[in-house]
Write a structure and sequence with these properties.
alpha+beta; about 25% strand; elongated
Length: about 270
């Protein structure tokens, strides 16, 4: 299971499963009530990772969160639409929306030993319109890669072909390290090229662990080259993920990182 976060406004925020760790949705009801209270509220608490980009090559979404937390009450932008999607098996199974949310608390914690940063965001729905809060389930279904609504008015076949070409290239570059895994990737590329239904297993993306192993390798380690191939392939997929099935591309990245970790550990 994973989470996606989307916040509208002058500094929009979009985060996916790689960054969001935990979400808590609560109905805020006075504890001293002896009957159904009218002074109710709703809030979301969100915990996630700080993913910094070297050279500022990518936007730092948490910077927009920090800026939003400082917007004064006099500004209409202090209230924003906050949407959290709960993901299971690659599909959105629940959608929670606070249409007029404001920041109750925002914090960032950094660790100079592990090099990992985390953030915490607490937002609350404006109380006089708490009835606008939405929480709904979404039916799960298997999608072809080209069935993403974003692709509907685009050249879907070309987009799918681009994904299949990238995965095919990764398979070719990994065949000398693990022929069985490379053959699996090759078969996957063919299925994508034919626009067949793909149902990949949901995995936790262990990018940080894979990077840590790579950075601690000696230069004569034969698996150095395999990680470079994986990183280049994932980078190309990420550049086109908004025009394809983002969840599918996340799963591919997770599978590649886990393979790298396992093979480096002798698995």
């Amino acid at each position: 299971m994973g989470f996606r976060l989307k916040i509208d406004g002058s500094g929009p925020v979009e985060m996916n499963e790689r960054q969001i760790k935990n979400v808590e949705f609560c109905a805020d009801i006075p504890q001293d009530s002896n009957a159904r209270a009218t002074d109710n509220g709703a809030y979301l608490k969100i915990w996630g990772k700080l993913l910094f980009s070297l050279g500022a090559e990518a936007d730092d979404q948490t910077l927009n969160l920090a800026k939003w937390s400082q917007v004064p009450s006099e500004s209409a932008d202090c209230y924003r639409n906050v949407e959290v999607a709960v993901i299971s098996a690659g599909q959105v199974v629940r959608d929670i929306t606070l249409p007029n949310a404001f920041v109750m608390e925002y914090s960032e914690s950094l660790d100079d030993e592990s090099g990992v940063g985390e953030f915490y965001l607490h937002v609350k729905q404006k109380k006089d319109i708490v009835d606008k809060t939405k929480a709904k389930n979404t039916k799960k279904k298997q999608n072809k890669l080209g069935d993403n609504p974003i692709c509907k008015n685009l050249d879907e076949k070309k987009l799918d072909e681009e994904v299949s070409l990238i995965i095919k290239k990764i398979a070719f570059e990994l065949k000398d390290f693990d022929h069985e895994f490379a053959s699996y990737l090759n078969d996957l590329a063919i299925k994508i090229f034919k626009n067949e239904i793909i149902d990949l297993e949901k995995m936790n993306c262990k990018e940080s662990e894979a990077i840590d192993i790579y950075m601690n390798m000696n230069l004569d380690n034969p698996y150095l080259k395999s990680f470079i191939s994986i990183e280049e392939g994932i980078d190309k997929l990420n550049k086109i993920k908004e025009k394809n099935n983002e969840e599918f591309i996340y799963k591919i990245a997770a599978k590649l990182y886990i393979w790298f970790i396992n093979i480096c550990k002798g698995g």
